[in-house]
Every structure is written in structure tokens, then in C-alpha cells.
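Annotated sample (chain length 531).
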Amino acid sequence: MEEKTLYIEPRQLHDEMLRLKNEQKMDFLESLTGMDWGVPDEKDAEGALRGLGVVYHLESTENGQRIVVKTSTLDREQPELPSVTDIWRGAEFPEREVYDFFGIRFVGHPDMRRLFLRNDWVGYPLRKDNDPQKENPLRMTNEETVDTTLEIKATQDGETTEERTVLFGDDEYVVNIGPQHPATHGVLRFRVSLEGENIHKIDVNCGYIHRGIEKMNESLTYPQTLALTDRLDYLGAMQNRHALCMCIEKAMGVEVSRRVQYIRTIMDELQRIDSHILFFSCLCQDLGATTAFLYGFRDREKVLDIFEETCGGRLILNYNTIGGVQADIHPNFVKRVKEFIPYMRHNLKEYHDIFTGNIIAQQRLKGIGVLSREDAISFGATGGTGRASGWACDVRKRMPYAAYNEVQFNEIVRTEGDCFARYMVRMNEIEESLHIIEQLIDNIPEGPYQEKMKPIIRVPEGSWYAAVEGSRGEFGVYLESRGDKTPYRLHYRATGLPLVGTVNTICRGAKIADLIAIGGTLDYVVPDIDR
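Output written by the structure step:
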């Protein structure tokens, strides 16, 4: 579906965004991207934007309409824009990310702290005129934990005031879960305020393995940028790279062969099965079911063996390319995939026998960590998390791509919104992925596996967004080009950032042990958050 683009002046932004949500039902803030369009005497390809700003991608869950909103400010010394956190709760972390990297302060945001970088970091590294090496020598000291939040409020005369709030009082009992705790599924740190065993409040701390991938992309050619996507959500490597290739192909007007579309779809679904098996295994281990954990790892090896034979890799796959795939499928590929389908269907019954029906597992998962449908949409919590709360948010259905419009499959949606629903959605999705692969595997068309591309790829001036249904939600790519062989801006919509954004809301009142089950069923992968 074509997207309409609007430019809105900063002073009108909040009112217009509220109108778009209420009148045009734009209830899903799909993506929020910080931008530096250059100093005031420069202009972008559309001739309207300059300075520091934000690009918002909005969608209506009612009618599927999509709108892109752009806004900017020319003040580089004290850049300020209105916050939309009171309209979409999912804007809280992305706005903090934009402040962290561009220095834009959002008026009305309740917590203007850095999200990824150290609190003593000097400057804003995604600005085009920033020199991080000059301003930031290597620091070997421990970072001080900031216990105060900053809210910038607008006054009636158009000025702004700063209001500081203490995050945790002296009388609160605060414990760290992470960044080395195995059940945080990566180096993620939760600061948890407890009242006895009950969770009162959680402060999420990101950035422990932030690698600056979006900044690196600005000095890489388009084929070079592909290597970094496998290292975001490493359990959705195939899907991440698919999204980036799709976005670049869309920008260049390149249409890949039907053979490539089929291969990409099959590979994406194998990747989804791989990811969901690992989700099952790790959740079982988190809750103490070690036998089930071993069952999952046994079966995941089958998928990795299939990947390795065609791609040469098991985790970092490097398979999708601009215009096709790296190599044609291995002669054994079809045979091995067809053998895997009945094998996996049979073993899924073992999973349910050993874990799903277990009374301890049910008591740990049912009714725990409930996320309402309204909150799932407001936070932008897509994937199995959103569908477990009753939100039909599957990109494969909303915006079909590759060969998904040629296959029949059910979008698994439940209404309970609890840990058990999130678990069952993913278990049932394994069956649907097997069904999708079954429809395609004997019908892969003949044709080239790679379109002929120029040695140096230049993308025309303009901006594009493309998304795929990743293993844990919508993985989106926003690309802005100035016609060079390197991207002007390449931003990834992380699947995990909206998921950790929900943690403070759905964990309040739960037991400290429930945090482990809730985190396990949200199924975030930290390198995807810490880009």
C-alpha cells in the first residue's frame, strides 16, 4: 500500500499527531527515526527538510492505511520537538534513542536520559558534524548510575522548564537483574524495585553491547551493509537481511525472480522454526525443565544443518544479496527439508507432552504478565507478543512480500495476553511455518538465483521503508539516500525495543520470579535492541 508523506511544523506536531490518531485511526506508531538533514543551507531530495528532525511511520490497525510524517528544527544548539509519548506509549524508548544520538530534546517526555550510551558521553554521534573520537577518549572507569529523570515541560508563554524526578527513593529496595543474568537473554540490565517479592517498578538499562551499526552503515557501500544485519537479531539473521535487500531493491526498482522469492520465503520460515525452537528451549531452561531444553537443541541442529549445506553458515548466514541470493540451493536441500517436516511435526507432540501440559509450567505461565490488546498496539509490541494479546499484526498478512501471497496459512491469534498465550502462539506458529514450507518446497520455479547488478550500487535520491515478519515481530528498514554509493541514513526498526518497553507495565505487581517467565515469553534478543 502506498504511503502518504506529510511535513508538519514542530509547533503543530503534537496536535496534528493527536488528530491523526483520533480522526484517521493511526493507532500504531510503526517506526520513529531520528534524522540529521544537514546544516540550514542544505536541503534533502524533497527540497523541504533541513536541520535535525524525526520521521514517523504510522499505520491504522482498523483500515491498514499508512502515513509518513516528517518534522525538523533548525536549532542545532538547543533542538526541541514535542513528544508523542502521551499519544503512543511505544514512543518512549525511540525518543530517548533519538535524544541519545542526535541530541533532540522532546518536550513532554517523562524521562530524557540517554538510552544506549554512557551518561558521561560527550556529543551526539549520529549528527553529521560529530567527531566522537575527538570528544570521547576511552574511559576505563565505571559509569555512575543516574537515579534522576528529566522532564522538559512547555509553559504557556512558549518557553520550556526542566523538572527532575528521583527514580528510586532511599527507602526502596532495588535489585539488579542482569546484565550478566542468564535469563535476561543477553547483556540487558533491569533495576527492579521490590515490595517483598512483588515488583513495584522496573527501570530498563540498555546499551551494554551497543556497536553503532547505524553509524557504521553511513561509511559502507550497500553490499557491505548487508554483513551487519545478521548480527542484529542473530536468531532472525535471514529475515533481517531479507528486509534490507528488499528495501534497497524497492529503492532501485529491481525485481527479483520468482525462484528467489520462493527460496527467500522458505529460508525465512526455516529461520522462524529455528528461532521458535530456541525460544521453547530457553524458556524451559529458565523455568527449570532441562530435559525439554535438550529436546529443543536436538531438533534445532536439523535446521542449522540445512542452512549450513546451502549457506555455509549456521548462525551468521550471509545468504540474501541485493538482487537475489548468494548461491543456489544445495542439491540435497529439497530432500532434507521434506524429511524435516514430518520429523518436526512428530517432535512437537513431545514438546507438548513434556512441558506444555506440565502443571508447574501452567501455573508459572497462565495469568502471568498480561498485556492488553490496546497496550500491545500502543507500545508497538508486534510478533507473537502482539498476536497473543489479540492483535493481528503479521506483516506477511498486512503487507505481503516474497511468496507469502501464494500460500495459505493461519495467523495465530489468542486473546489472553499472558505468558502462556505468548508461548502457545509461537508453538502453533512452528506448525504454520511447516505448512508454508510444505506448499513451496516441491514448486520452486526455475530461474536465476541472482539478478545482474552493477559493480558499484547507487540508490536514487529519496526515502523508503520496507518490513518483514521477523521471528519476534516486525523488522523494518528505513533508508534515505542522496544518490551516493553509501546510504545517507539507514535505520532499523528493532523488534525487541518495543518488547522491553512493555516490561515496566506488565511486570508491576507480579512476583520477582515472574519476571523471568515474562522476559522469556517476550522473546527479545538483546543485540537487536543494542544496534
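Annotation: The chain has a mean pLDDT of 87.
Annotation: The chain is about 40% helix and 20% strand.
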